[in-house]
Design goal:
Number of strands: 9
Shape: elongated
Order of helices and strands: HEEEEEEEEE
Strand order of the largest sheet: 1-2-3-5-6-7-8-9
Oligomer: single chain
Helix content: under 10%
Distance between the termini: 29 Å
Strand content: over 45%
Length: 185
């Protein structure tokens, strides 16, 4: 239900923008999300396929703003009779900077804030613990874009969502490598 609400919110923000002046864009990425958990006595690093939806506005050739929702999907690790599962998602707002290399290629960076929602479950024998946490973290991204034409661009990027969960010395960090497409209005 929450995913549908986030998608609807991004679509609702993007739809009115489509009829306005140029500079607005929408898009989506799919890629590999990695979660690194350190729970004091043990740590793990797992990857899974993830996706994100974005909407943004370019004020000029070099500067803009973007809002996005990333579902970093669920990963699970088991060992010694215990299972730990982590499922983060994030809604972010970021300022964007673009460096055009020529008419088709450009490099970009994003700096902003992400609100991460993390659900963690742990099971050991018959003992089961579950919890959720909402956490605000810094958001950083770098990438490259290839403009097929004035409306369609392909992007590849790395995003760091920071510590999406923290409890004492235990924490979960999340990042994502992805490729996607943008449609500009």
């Amino acid at each position: 239900m929450k995913k549908i609400t986030m998608i609807a919110m991004i679509a609702a923000l993007a739809a009115p923008l489509a009829v306005q002046a140029e500079g607005y864009y929408v898009g989506g990425n799919i890629g590999r999300a990695e979660q690194k958990a350190d729970v004091g006595i043990a740590s793990f690093k797992e990857s899974t396929t993830a996706y994100k939806l974005v909407g943004g506005f370019n004020y000029n050739t070099n500067f803009g703003a973007e809002i996005g929702y990333a579902d970093l999907r669920e990963v699970s690790v088991s060992g010694n009779g215990a299972t730990l599962t982590s499922k983060p998602s994030a809604l972010y707002v970021a300022a964007t900077g673009t460096l055009p290399l020529n008419e088709q290629f450009s490099l970009f960076g994003k700096l902003g804030v992400a609100t991460a929602h993390e659900k963690v479950t742990a099971k050991y024998g018959k003992t089961f613990e579950s919890g959720t946490e909402n956490r605000t973290t810094p958001y950083i991204s770098v990438g490259a874009a290839f403009a097929l034409n004035k409306q369609v661009s392909f992007v590849a990027e790395y995003e760091n969502f920071g510590k999406v969960a923290k409890d004492g010395s235990a924490n979960v960090k999340a990042d994502m490598f992805s490729a996607g497409v943008r449609y500009s209005f």
